[in-house]
Amino acid sequence: MTSRTRALRRLAAPLVLAGIAVVALPASPASAYSGSGAAVYADRWAKSVNSNYPDYHSSWWWSSGSDCTNFVSQALHDPTGGGMDYVGGSSTTDDHQWWAHWNGSSFSNSHSWSVAQDFYTFLMWHYPGGWNEGSAHTLSEQQTTYTPNSVVTGDVLFYDWESDGHIDHDGIQVGWGTDPDSKKYGNYQDQHSNDRYHAFWSLIPYNEKWSTTTITFVHVDPRNP
Amino acid sequence: MISMKPRYVRGGAIVAAAAAVCLGLAVSADPQPAASPDPSMPKLADVGAGAAAPALPPTAQDAPLRTLMSNAITKHMQLGVVHGSPNGQKPDAAALAHQAQSDTADIAALFGQSQAQKEQAALARSVKFQTDTDFHVLGGGVNDLQIVNETITDTTATIDATGDEWSKFESMNPDGSWIVSEPHGVTNYHFVLTHRAGNAWIVDSYEDHYAPGHTP
Question: What is the model's pTM?
């Protein structure tokens, strides 16, 4: 609870460091990661943008219209979501770190916060971080109604469209039921970039490159502070 | 003697058909992106990232090449598609086998040896999963294919292109109902074409990647 109180001070108490106003984004809570909380956040913001964080929807050259990882990171971190602590805050390129800051005039964040491949690397490197729970590649695997039992609400799904080993996209598993757009039943996820709410987990109804896609499951360890 | 010097090269900006620019990847180019985009900053097309790369004005040679590329993509997307097969049921096994024979002939006509082997493997997969699973491919192809960069010699053409790729299929829900999906997305292509005897071009290889910002 204390951490949530701290979060409310996010924009109220700018610190002045070296002449630059530095304000932390929603402060890092002390409780463990809540997958269900992350899902609540993802559902809340699946079709909109939380102005407390960066927004990479626009096709400016640094973002390519790709807000997916930024969105999942928010769901994992936000005090109203998963509540997972930032890690580090000094390096943008070190995938051991995972953070986003507002310096009074612009956002900055680690690559692991906003780039799918770096986010995956962060979850694998960080302890307890996340655990690779396998992948789905074949048509029958992508068609399967449910993700593996070890993949639960609040876990992250990583997509590699060409199965070339480079992760291109991610979303967060938030439950199961009927995808409101495709009408396909099963586990579903929320995502940004192409903003989707309760999309069938493999995205096969939306992916004309389904025949070459691999989806990797990552269980986010609930012991993450 | 055949000259390998390019007869012409058009399109200075290289399209990122290799799709290094995927979800958020371009963020790495700027470790501290601004909250509000600066209007003076270059847009994607300006830096050659490919999503909105302008098409080159067509030349007389482009038309047959574009037709060939469109046919190759369409064939790839329609491998194992039994045209006229009714919705809501698996394609008939005999019709599927007949289609596979027809597709094999088309593959030989469109693709060079290496790419043809890949297409043949994709065809086998298509036939198998339509037989083994509750999945039925209904169609596929590409719309509005535009050349954005090309280098052509007497024997080889290397072409970057972009188009709206689509697929259509149906799959079964747990309750037994079939649902039809028709995804599409802007795709960047990188083609290598070669001349074969008879003055016809064939597709030696091609790669396809979602254009930045156009993922599912």
Answer: 0.82
